[in-house]
Every structure is written in structure tokens, then in C-alpha cells.
Amino acid sequence: MGGADTHARPEEKVFPVSDKIKGPQGVIKVPYRILMGPGPSNAHPRILAAQTLPLLGHLHPPFLALMDEIKAGLQYAFQTESKYTLLISGTGHAGMELCLANMLEPGQKVIIGNNGIWGERCADMAKRYEANVIELKCPPGQSFTFEEVKKAVEEHKPALLFLCQGESSTGVQQSLAGMGELCHQNGALLLVDTVCSLGAVPFFGDAWGVDICYSGSQKALSASPGTTPFFMSQKAHDRLTSRKTGVHSYNYDLNLLGKYWGWYEGRFYHHTGIVSLWYGMREALAIVYETGLETMWKRHRELYDQLWEGLRDLGLEPFAENPADQLPSVNTIKVPEGIDWLGLNNYVMGKYNLEIAGGLGPSAGKVWRIGIMGFNATAANIALVIAAFKDGLQSQGFHGAKKTAS
Amino acid sequence: MGGADTHARPEEKVFPVSDKIKGPQGVIKVPYRILMGPGPSNAHPRILAAQTLPLLGHLHPPFLALMDEIKAGLQYAFQTESKYTLLISGTGHAGMELCLANMLEPGQKVIIGNNGIWGERCADMAKRYEANVIELKCPPGQSFTFEEVKKAVEEHKPALLFLCQGESSTGVQQSLAGMGELCHQNGALLLVDTVCSLGAVPFFGDAWGVDICYSGSQKALSASPGTTPFFMSQKAHDRLTSRKTGVHSYNYDLNLLGKYWGWYEGRFYHHTGIVSLWYGMREALAIVYETGLETMWKRHRELYDQLWEGLRDLGLEPFAENPADQLPSVNTIKVPEGIDWLGLNNYVMGKYNLEIAGGLGPSAGKVWRIGIMGFNATAANIALVIAAFKDGLQSQGFHGAKKTAS
């Protein structure tokens, strides 16, 4: 080798490097925030620590062993024994699109429970995949009754039913009671979004007859954003393998992704696993397993009670009026008449480094949102949130209708 | 609130949590490896350290400021002043699909330079997006001449031309000389894959007339896998906004993604930014800017010379025979007759914790691959690789044809 001329690419012009654009300099600075909005919530320190571990190759044996650990942890978290379990390299939005991309073929019917932003986005995505989209709607702040869903499924006989267990834009929990059986009696598969609910409230993937499901890394599982827990049932796998048309997206194609995750013999290089975040998710799932799901559910429910006791005491009311609709992990609080919601958010951020979030989609401008999620689900954080609301409201001259004074 | 009954979801059956599936337990253990394959390469410790920083909300002002820093760092790395620059939440495979998803409409012609696995995968993806795919082929280990490409572009007048600057499966660098001008004279846009090349060899996005381009985080930029540098030209943006059909994928839709990254007024919640990895990429880009591109290119080229001086001395030869085709960041080395390549890989992994990779796609079983990338591009690592090859070959009884003995 030797001389520089051997590296030359014929005629490729090399210019002086332009310094017109200045890149970042110095070491990154990130302020500390207590993230009590709908997510990301603060990651568990053990998870963040795992993200500094040295990288491994995406097909190295120790990395494949780690993938098996992740798969087992996801099966526990989802309460499923399905081998068709994996971690998606992408956020919840990618999880939603992946499920639709694999389960729907052009022209097939899908019923989408749309009572907030996730139903809206799901309908948008399903239309892009040329499905025949039937939107089932109910007022924001409410969930669908079994009867409403039953009527729609029996009438339309869809290939797929989408329900969001935790609609974070309105703080609504959707009961899944009877939905799996209903779908299977009518030739449909049941797709459930558990992004904001998994680990915070009961979920039984197999026993409830859920066919395909994605969740979130940065909610009650307390990991960083960027990966998405996933499983599907044997029924859903059968649907996948009997498709008449190919899956439109390469990256979301479960036929290939499953070959990376060891669903079949051998391992296929589908993409490069997101090494650092998979380390983090392995830790997140170990924490879930070590803690136990029942303990997690109980803790979230108790803190939800504590939060609302404090908030009601301040004269605040839930946006989701029916207690049976309320999602413990994302709580929506009506902004009282005359209060500047954004002013309050900015006030508590400035004084306490505390994130209280505003609304989203149908709840924008109408509510605050408080997350109770995983590592952040502590009595200390709930006490802080209540104190911050009290201070923030008083700073705007609001003293509420104290129950004790009535 | 209060009583537990208010939380009940009608008829939703709660079971005892099954312990049939055991999740992971205890703290994660990851062995240390010196990753001298085609990537992931070892991440810079400063980047791994940034991945432990506390999370921020994906639309918080300090996070938006960080996104602006990342954008500026990417503009420097790509040598572009285009505002249409962002970091994709996904790996290089997602970057490839995103570019095709936005630039191609069903039936449009695309010429794909296919001389290795990336051309192959690009052709697969373009077919999924219903493009009219014309594959331009040349033998593995070679790059396309300008004349070959010119003939194809003038004959087919495609909407898009795909070239891979660094074909990592064969260790081949594609000269981009004249390609931008050629495309623009023929109504085509130029799409370039720089996953394995950016930061290691010269690249001038604007001056070379590149229209749309993605790169890799975990090669010469030394960050973790999971994010993908991206930019496109004004011409490419015009193509996007004049599409007759919608973009098929929600997650890859640049119309929406650009609204998150501040290409236009306001910020849109398209997905949740991959906070920890974006911190890491901010550090990676700061390191690139602080080091300077010219210094990086020079270092990679010098180490490439050192590597090959040592390898030739051992009697080893490059797979890419023409020096003008050789990619300094991924080096392909012919496996000599009678040598067990996998045995050598396992031997050096066992003894030195050192990754030497095998081939991929058209080079599988025929070559070893050695990466010279970013943080790993040091004289110490090159010396180790040469010593490990010498030891590994000798352990199989191979003593080569020493130049000094001829």
C-alpha cells in the first residue's frame, strides 16, 4: 500500500472543511427534573447505570443470551407464555405501526376504539396501510362499554379490534373484560396498547385472550424511551404466516424480526440491536420480576388513592368522572375556571424542578396530567405533587372548595 | 375516592400472577470486548457516560435546545447547511427505509447500485414501497465506475439513484465523484448511504450534490446503535412536498418528523425522542467537531496504511483488489486456502477478547472484516489486530508468504 495516491477516488473533489456550521462543544449539561407527567418518567438509576456498560456485537453469544433474558422478562410482564415475544427497536409509535403493518392487509376491516390521541393515531396509521377503518368513538374521559364494542364487532366482523388499555391523553383505562372472547367468537384478533398501563395495573396477556400487544419502556417500567415490549399469540402468528400480501415495511416485518429474536432456528441479522437500551430494558425487567407484578399493581393503586385524596382536598376534580374509567398511571385533573394551567406548570417547574404536564389532543388546555409510574411511584413524589399544586394554585389566588370547610 | 371497589373494572378477571415464566434476576453482567469488526465499534466512554444522565421530557425546552445542538453537529459532520437535518430514532436499516419511503412513490424508477448486502436490502425495501427497481450490479469487491452509473441514469432517467459510500459487506468504497451533477442533469435525486463511512473518509454533502443521506451512529461516530444521522437537500424537500401520494409509514413520514425537529414553526409530538441515545449522539458530534473532520479522516487513513502494512507482511491480501475501491473503515481480508476463518475468530476472542468478524452476504466465508472506526481507531488497536492475526494464523500452522523472504 503506502502512498496517498492509492486512496484517491478518481475525480472526487475534497474541499477545505467548512466551519460555517459550528457543532456542539464541551461536555453535555442536563438539568435534573422530577418527571411526574405522562412520561418519560425518571428512569431507575440501576437502568441508567446499565446504559454505560461496554457495547457488544449484535449477534455475539452473550448478547443473544441477553435477548433471551429480555424475552423471558417480557413474558413475565405480559403474563404470556407465547414464544412470539420480543423487544421492538423503536418507541411506542413504532410498536403501534408494527402491529398494524403485520396484522392488516389492504382492504381488511379494523375497528379502532378512538377516545383519545392513541385511537386517533392508530386510525391514521391503519389508513396508511390501506385498511378499511371503522372508528368507534366515545366522549373523551370515558371508556367503551362491553356492549358498545360487542355491537360494533358483531356488526362489522373486523379482522382486528384495537383498544388502548391506558389512554394517556384523557387518563382513561379501558376494561378488557370479555374482549378477547368476543373477538375470537367473531373471527377478529385483539390488539391492545399497554404503553401507559403495563406494570401499573393488572394485565394477563394469555388469560384475557390478547392476540397482539405493545407497551412502553419509559412509563411504569422505568427505562429510557426507545424500545417497545411486544408479544403476539399463536393466533396472531397464524394470521401473519397466512397473509396473501407481503408486509409493506422491512423494519416492521415480524417474519424477519422474529428470526433475529430466535422464534425459529438460527439467527438473522435483521437490524443492529439497540445495545445500550436493551441493557437498560434487561435491568427494567429484572426489577419488575424481583419486585413482583402484584406488588407493583398494589403500589400504583395505593398512590393513586393518596394522590386523589390530596387533590380533592385542594378542590380539584378528575377529568375522567367515572372512577371505573380512571387510569392510575396517568391522572387527568380538570383545570378550574380562571386558572392559568400553563402558569402553574411553569411555576412548579421553576420552584421545584417538577414536571406537571398539560393536556394532549382532546384534553389540551382542559387538564393537567400526573403520572404515577414505576420508579417515580413513591409516597414522597405524591406528597410533593400535592404540595406543589397547593402552592401553585394559591399563587394564582385559588383556594378551592375545601371539603373540610363544606 | 377511597374504597378499592371504585377501581374495579367490571368483570375484568384478575388471576394470581403466574410464576411459570421466570424473569431475569440480579444485576446485568456484560463482558468487555474490543470490537474491531464492522460495527458496533466500542463507544467512546464520554458518550456512554452521557447515557446515564437523568431523562428529560421529549418536548421540554432544554431537550429542544439539545436537538438544535445535534442538528448543528450533524450539519458539520455531513458538511451541509441544509436545515432539513435531523437524527432518526432507529438504526441504519430504518434510515434506509425512511429515505425510500419519502422519496419514492409507487411506480417511480429507482436505480440501486447493488454490489453487496446494502444494495440488496435497499432493493428489497424499494420493492416493498412498490417502486420500479432497476438494480445495477458489479462483482463483489468492486465499486461502480462513473461511466457505468452514467449509462444507467441516462438510459432509465430514474427518480432516485442509490449508492452506498461504504459497502461494509465487501469493504468497498464507492466514489461519488460527479454523481450529484449526473443525477441533477437527468432529473434524479442522489441518495447515499454513509453508515460505514461518515467521519472516516471525506464527505461533502452540499458540495457533492447529495440530496438525501443517512449514516450510522456506531461506526466512526463511536456512539451506541439506535439512532441515525440524516439530512436532505432543498431539492429532496421539494420532492417530498410535491408528492401525489401520502407517505405510507407514519413513523418514517418526514412531513411529521420535520415538525418535531423544528424545520418549521412550532414543535409537533411525532414520537418520543430516544433521550439517552440523543444525549450520547450530542457527545459524539461534539467529539467530531472538537477533533475536526480533517484530523479524523487523516487518522483513519494512516491507520489503514498501518493495518495493511502489517497484514501484507503476514501474507494476507485484500478482498477489494483495487486500492481505489478499498474502504478504510471496513477492511476485508481474504481467508487463505486451508485456514479455518471462524476458528481464528474464536481463537482471538478467547485469548484477547478481540472481535475479528467474518464476511456477510456475498463475502460470507471468504473474508475477515476489520473495522477502523472512531474511538477504536488507534495505533494500539491496529497493533493488537496484527499481533492477533499473526498468533491466530500460526496456531493453524500458517506462516504466509513473507514479503521479506521473497
TrEMBL record, chains A, B:
Keywords: Aminotransferase, Pyridoxal phosphate, Transferase. Its EC number is 2.6.1.44. GO terms for molecular function: alanine-glyoxylate transaminase activity; L-serine-pyruvate transaminase activity. Substrate binds at residue 369. The modification N6-(pyridoxal phosphate)lysine is found at residue 219. Pfam families: Aminotran_5. Its cofactor is pyridoxal 5'-phosphate. The keyword Transferase applies. Residues 58-359 form the Aminotransferase class V domain. This is alanine--glyoxylate transaminase.
